[in-house]
Design brief:
Elements lengths: L2 H22 L3 H4 L41 H15 L5 H12 L11 H4 L12 H7 L11 H16 L10
Helix pairs in contact: 3-7, 6-7
Length: 175
Amino acid sequence: MTTHTQTRTSRIARFRTMSVAGIATLGAAAAALTLTSTSAQAAEAAPASASVVKASADSAQGAPGSRGYANNLDGWIKESLAIMKAKGIPGTYEGLHRNIMRESSGNPNAQNNWDVNARNGIPSKGLLQVIQPTFNAYHVAGTAHDLTNPVANITAAANYAAHRYGSIDNVNSAY
């Protein structure tokens, strides 16, 4: 098989997996939640940077958009990037947006009620489908201690991805 044929076959297999998952779930937003790829993760986990924040104490923050950013997906990503930059957490707008669209279709209230985490009583929630223990461990100071707060969810997920994969930009499937 040529590389082009293998790539096309892999894309078709992923599409079939996502189609079956979509049929098995309710609603368009639920279909986009935590769909696992049939192929192995393309990027090898990169070593974590020393500047990655592991955990933080509770910190209060106002509602998303309260710092002069728009209260929408674009504003949440931009506000998160500003916090990430200040804390030394790597990531780009494109990397965050790509992962958010795959995980929740941009719905900050998305919740996965069907995977193994949900069956164990800890469903993944929010824009980047984070479970509560991961959020608690990777919460970033300066954000609300609320798993479904869009900015807190994005920054905690990016912090986790930076620690585990080097950057959210290296994540190309469910993580």
